[in-house]
């Protein structure tokens, strides 16, 4: 069993930055691919970014490419999402997710574990 806890959300002005963290429990964190998803009010959950278990491969949604960076520190059992040049349309609850096995996917249905989310609000 893996538990995921997100932190780092908050209120920021457009153009600003935030760094989200996701702390994972469990000894097998190193072997999980990790992802970030988000859900805005009235919208479906959408893929944001993902990283493979070693951290060598990363994937991004087109809407965040060049602005967001996903990374992980397996020694700390933590995955990060650095968000720069934030826009009001980035406002959402951001969820961390873990997928058993090393392979990366952008599809939420393949992720086995989810955090409770952290709110990110970007004001114009």
Architecture overview:
- With 124 residues, the chain is mostly beta strands.
- The chain contains no helices and eleven strands.
- It has strands spanning 4-7, 10-13, 18-24, 32-39, 46-51, 58-60, 68-73, 78-83, 92-100, 113-114, 118-123.
- Strands 2, 4, 5, 6, 9, 10 and 11 form a seven-stranded mixed beta sheet that branches. The protein has a four-stranded antiparallel beta sheet with strand order 1-3-8-7, with no helix packed on it.
Helix content: under 10%
Number of helices: 0
Structural class: mainly beta
For the sheet with most strands, the description reads: 7 strands, mixed
Mean pLDDT over the residues:
94
Instruction: Give the overall form.
Output: globular
Percent strand equals over 45%
How many E strands?
Answer: 11
Poorly predicted parts = none
| Span between termini | 40 Å
Element pattern in H and E: EEEEEEEEEEE
Output the radius of gyration: 13 Å
List the SSEs and their pairings.
Layout lengths: L3 E4 L2 E4 L4 E7 L7 E8 L6 E6 L6 E3 L7 E6 L4 E6 L8 E9 L12 E2 L3 E6 L1
Parallel strand pairs: 2-11
Antiparallel strand pairs: 1-3, 3-8, 4-5, 4-9, 5-6, 7-8, 9-10, 9-11
Give a summary of the structure in a few sentences.
With 124 residues, this protein is mainly beta.
Keywords for this structure?
124 residues; seven-stranded mixed β-sheet; four-stranded antiparallel β-sheet; 49% strand; globular
